[in-house]
Write a structure and sequence with these properties.
Helices cover about 55% and strands about 10% of the residues. The protein has about 300 residues and is of the alpha/beta class. Helix 5 crosses helix 6, helix 5 crosses helix 7 and helix 9 packs across helix 12. The chain is globular.
């Protein structure tokens, strides 16, 4: 293994992956790149459990709070930004640790991207309006008529269905046409990979504790400031874990106790979905039940 290498650390929320990344980075003078879809936004540092300002100062961190909540960050956009960050780190003869819970981001970075063109904003607006006009079921049927390969998408998956509609509208070709084109990796020679996957009882207890801590550490105020911006509700940041639940509390639709229970529940469910994704899509990655063990294992192999 070369002195400068790329390390992937993945896992569900509250698994301790950020702590593992920080321990490794300090030990080998590495730098850290975020692979969490929500931590990329500046608006929700508390609710997304971003590394503390002290941790970010101790070790160089990239793509944390890098984008405004009014922007959209697709897997493709993130992968290009991350590839640039990793390239810069390796160019300084440092190791790059890519860490996060968004499995699709790791795949996009290592396996490459489909050459899907960008659709103009006005066509995206037309797609959204069309779905509202005819309803989710009819809109899904319309998308499948244009691109039968999208039949696996449920009608509630508005983001992907709108994407398929807008790409066909903008190019005259189905989204699946672009998705089936050859891909080129954005980075190569990943030296180590690990998924931190605590046992479910431990993970759920951590999820509950994290949700409770967030409410006491400013998550309500954070969401209040976000809601005050009156952003497009279809933006990713407006659908971030906890934003709908805390928004309901701010609107007087739930008590604080109800909000805490709801936040704990959605956090546990999210962690479960992440575990399922890594189990199915990254089943060849080594596993560790704790951050400490993961850090020791990675360092032992360097």
């Amino acid at each position: 293994m070369s002195d400068a290498s790329v390390i992937f650390i993945a896992g569900p929320t509250a698994s301790g992956k950020s702590a593992a990344a920080l321990e490794i980075a300090r030990a080998i003078s590495a730098e850290i790149v975020n692979a969490d879809a929500m931590q990329v936004y500046a608006d929700l540092s508390i609710l997304t459990a971003r590394p503390s300002p002290e941790d970010e100062r101790a070790v160089p961190h990239y793509l944390y709070g890098a984008l405004d909540g009014a922007e959209r960050c697709s897997a493709g956009r993130w992968a290009r930004l991350a590839a640039d960050a990793v390239g810069g780190i390796l160019g300084r003869e440092k190791s790059a640790i890519v860490v996060g819970g968004t499995g699709l981001y790791f795949r996009a970075l290592e396996q490459g991207l489909s050459p899907v063109p960008a659709a103009p904003a006005e066509i995206r607006a037309r797609a959204t309006a069309r779905r509202e006009e005819i309803g989710p079921a009819a809109f899904r049927a319309e998308v499948i008529l244009r691109d039968p390969a999208m039949a696996h998408l449920p009608e509630g998956d508005a983001q992907r269905l709108i994407r398929a509609w807008e790409i066909h509208e903008a190019t005259g070709k189905p989204l699946s046409y672009f998705q089936n084109q050859p891909r080129a990796p954005l980075i190569e020679n990943v030296a180590a990979r690990i998924v931190i996957a605590p046992d479910r009882e431990t993970l759920y207890a951590r999820c509950d504790a994290r949700a409770e801590a967030m409410l006491g550490e400013g998550a309500v105020e954070e969401v209040k400031a976000l809601v005050a911006r009156k952003l497009d509700p279809s933006l990713p940041v407006m659908k971030a874990l906890g934003v709908p639940e805390i928004s309901a509390f701010l609107a007087g639709e739930a008590t604080r106790a109800e909000t805490l229970a709801a936040l704990q529940q959605v956090t546990r469910r999210f962690a479960k979905r992440q575990l399922t994704w890594f189990r199915n899509q990254a089943n060849d990655w080594p596993r560790s039940e704790s951050a400490d063990a993961a850090a020791r294992g990675i360092l032992a192999g360097l």
